[in-house]
Amino acid sequence: MRILFLTPYYPPEVGAPQARIHELALRLVKRGHRVQVLTALPNYPSGIVPPEYRDRAGTWEVRDGVEVHRTWIYATPNKGFVRRILAHLSFMVSAILAAPRMAACDAVYVESPPLFDGIAGWVLAWSKGARMVFNVADLWPQSVVELGMIGP
Which residues belong to any copy of the Glycosyltransferase subfamily 4-like N-terminal domain (predicted)? Predict the structure, then answer.
Protein backbone atom coordinates (compact mmCIF):
# COMPACT_ATOMS: atom_id res chain seq x y z
CA MET A 1 0.00 0.00 0.00
CA ARG A 2 1.12 3.58 -0.69
CA ILE A 3 0.49 5.83 2.31
CA LEU A 4 0.91 9.59 2.61
CA PHE A 5 1.05 11.18 6.06
CA LEU A 6 0.17 14.86 6.36
CA THR A 7 1.41 16.58 9.50
CA PRO A 8 3.21 19.84 10.27
CA TYR A 9 5.18 18.06 13.01
CA TYR A 10 7.87 15.49 12.18
CA PRO A 11 11.43 14.72 13.32
CA PRO A 12 13.95 16.24 13.81
CA GLU A 13 11.40 18.08 15.95
CA VAL A 14 10.70 16.46 19.31
CA GLY A 15 7.24 15.84 20.68
CA ALA A 16 4.41 13.35 20.91
CA PRO A 17 2.96 13.87 17.39
CA GLN A 18 6.43 13.74 15.85
CA ALA A 19 7.29 10.47 17.59
CA ARG A 20 3.87 8.89 16.96
CA ILE A 21 3.84 9.55 13.22
CA HIS A 22 7.51 8.64 12.74
CA GLU A 23 7.13 5.33 14.57
CA LEU A 24 3.99 4.48 12.63
CA ALA A 25 5.71 5.36 9.35
CA LEU A 26 8.74 3.20 10.25
CA ARG A 27 6.58 0.20 11.09
CA LEU A 28 4.67 0.53 7.83
CA VAL A 29 7.93 0.72 5.84
CA LYS A 30 9.16 -2.42 7.62
CA ARG A 31 5.97 -4.18 6.50
CA GLY A 32 6.72 -3.30 2.89
CA HIS A 33 4.53 -0.25 2.38
CA ARG A 34 5.65 2.87 0.53
CA VAL A 35 5.39 5.78 2.96
CA GLN A 36 5.60 9.49 2.23
CA VAL A 37 5.33 12.27 4.79
CA LEU A 38 4.32 15.76 3.75
CA THR A 39 5.37 18.04 6.57
CA ALA A 40 6.58 21.55 7.33
CA LEU A 41 10.13 22.77 7.60
CA PRO A 42 11.11 21.94 11.20
CA ASN A 43 10.57 24.88 13.55
CA TYR A 44 8.42 23.72 16.48
CA PRO A 45 8.22 25.03 19.21
CA SER A 46 10.84 27.80 18.89
CA GLY A 47 9.82 29.07 15.47
CA ILE A 48 13.45 28.80 14.40
CA VAL A 49 14.18 26.72 11.30
CA PRO A 50 17.49 24.80 11.67
CA PRO A 51 20.32 26.07 9.42
CA GLU A 52 20.26 23.02 7.13
CA TYR A 53 16.61 23.76 6.23
CA ARG A 54 16.74 27.57 6.05
CA ASP A 55 16.29 29.68 2.93
CA ARG A 56 14.34 26.97 1.15
CA ALA A 57 10.74 26.74 0.09
CA GLY A 58 10.92 23.01 0.72
CA THR A 59 13.14 19.94 0.88
CA TRP A 60 13.02 16.23 0.11
CA GLU A 61 14.88 13.55 2.04
CA VAL A 62 14.66 9.91 3.00
CA ARG A 63 14.70 9.21 6.76
CA ASP A 64 14.83 5.55 7.73
CA GLY A 65 13.13 4.49 4.49
CA VAL A 66 10.42 7.15 4.75
CA GLU A 67 10.20 9.75 1.96
CA VAL A 68 9.94 13.10 3.73
CA HIS A 69 8.75 16.13 1.77
CA ARG A 70 9.06 19.38 3.70
CA THR A 71 7.21 22.46 2.61
CA TRP A 72 7.27 26.11 3.61
CA ILE A 73 5.54 27.31 6.75
CA TYR A 74 5.27 30.67 8.44
CA ALA A 75 7.73 29.74 11.19
CA THR A 76 6.86 31.44 14.44
CA PRO A 77 7.28 30.66 18.13
CA ASN A 78 4.38 28.69 19.58
CA LYS A 79 3.00 31.82 21.27
CA GLY A 80 -0.05 33.90 20.54
CA PHE A 81 -3.27 32.89 18.86
CA VAL A 82 -2.87 34.94 15.67
CA ARG A 83 0.67 33.74 14.96
CA ARG A 84 -0.31 30.11 15.50
CA ILE A 85 -3.31 30.47 13.18
CA LEU A 86 -1.11 32.06 10.51
CA ALA A 87 1.40 29.22 10.82
CA HIS A 88 -1.37 26.61 10.53
CA LEU A 89 -2.95 28.35 7.54
CA SER A 90 0.42 28.72 5.80
CA PHE A 91 1.08 24.99 6.13
CA MET A 92 -2.39 24.18 4.83
CA VAL A 93 -1.81 26.30 1.72
CA SER A 94 1.74 24.96 1.21
CA ALA A 95 0.52 21.37 1.52
CA ILE A 96 -2.23 21.96 -1.03
CA LEU A 97 0.27 23.54 -3.43
CA ALA A 98 2.58 20.54 -2.94
CA ALA A 99 -0.15 18.05 -3.90
CA PRO A 100 0.80 17.79 -7.60
CA ARG A 101 4.41 16.94 -6.65
CA MET A 102 3.45 14.08 -4.35
CA ALA A 103 3.53 10.52 -5.66
CA ALA A 104 0.34 8.53 -6.11
CA CYS A 105 -1.02 7.04 -2.91
CA ASP A 106 -3.82 4.79 -1.75
CA ALA A 107 -4.43 6.52 1.58
CA VAL A 108 -3.81 9.94 3.11
CA TYR A 109 -3.42 9.92 6.89
CA VAL A 110 -3.93 13.38 8.39
CA GLU A 111 -2.66 14.05 11.90
CA SER A 112 -4.53 16.82 13.67
CA PRO A 113 -4.52 19.28 15.34
CA PRO A 114 -4.35 21.65 13.63
CA LEU A 115 -7.80 21.13 12.19
CA PHE A 116 -6.89 23.09 9.03
CA ASP A 117 -4.85 20.07 7.99
CA GLY A 118 -8.13 18.28 7.33
CA ILE A 119 -8.79 20.65 4.43
CA ALA A 120 -5.35 20.03 2.93
CA GLY A 121 -5.76 16.30 3.52
CA TRP A 122 -9.10 16.28 1.73
CA VAL A 123 -7.56 18.09 -1.27
CA LEU A 124 -4.62 15.66 -1.33
CA ALA A 125 -6.87 12.60 -1.07
CA TRP A 126 -9.24 13.93 -3.73
CA SER A 127 -6.39 14.81 -6.12
CA LYS A 128 -4.81 11.37 -5.73
CA GLY A 129 -8.06 9.38 -5.75
CA ALA A 130 -7.13 8.10 -2.29
CA ARG A 131 -9.01 7.47 0.92
CA MET A 132 -8.43 9.79 3.86
CA VAL A 133 -8.02 9.03 7.55
CA PHE A 134 -8.43 12.12 9.73
CA ASN A 135 -6.94 11.45 13.16
CA VAL A 136 -7.80 14.15 15.69
CA ALA A 137 -5.33 13.33 18.45
CA ASP A 138 -5.99 16.19 20.87
CA LEU A 139 -9.46 17.66 20.72
CA TRP A 140 -10.19 19.76 23.76
CA PRO A 141 -13.28 21.86 22.94
CA GLN A 142 -13.63 22.96 26.57
CA SER A 143 -10.25 24.71 26.40
CA VAL A 144 -11.62 27.12 23.78
CA VAL A 145 -14.38 28.11 26.22
CA GLU A 146 -11.94 28.42 29.13
CA LEU A 147 -9.68 30.71 27.09
CA GLY A 148 -12.66 32.98 26.47
CA MET A 149 -12.56 32.49 22.71
CA ILE A 150 -16.22 31.42 22.63
CA GLY A 151 -19.02 31.49 25.17
CA PRO A 152 -20.14 28.44 27.17
Answer: 15-143
Among 34, 23, 26, smallest CA distance to 64 is for: 26
As a whole number of angstroms, the distance between CA 7 and CA 13 comes to: 12
At 4-22, the pLDDT tens digits run: 999 999 999 988 889 999 9
Helix (H, G, I), strand (E, B) or coil at 79: coil
Whole-model pTM: value is: 0.87
Beta carbons of 22 and 11 less than 8 angstroms apart: yes
Residue 121 located in a structural domain: yes
Number of domains in the chain: 1
Contact 120, 95 (CB under 8 A): yes
User: Which structural domain range is residue 39 located in?
Assistant: 2-146
